[in-house]
What we know:
The protein is mainly alpha-helical. It has one domain (about 1-50). The chain has helices at about 1-25, 35-50. This is TraR/DksA family transcriptional regulator.
Amino acid sequence: MADAMxxxxxxxxxxxxxxxRAARAKTPxxxxxxxxxxxxxxxxxxxxxxxxxx
Length: 54
């Protein structure tokens, strides 16, 4: 029974390490979050160009 638990724990740890490596391998992209001022400007432009629809 202990051997089965050890195998499960080993498999979980290997999967965790695989996920960590995959996350570290990704190149960080540009954030889509805008500051409040930039968001307000984008909304105002949207209202202007779309006739009031945001």
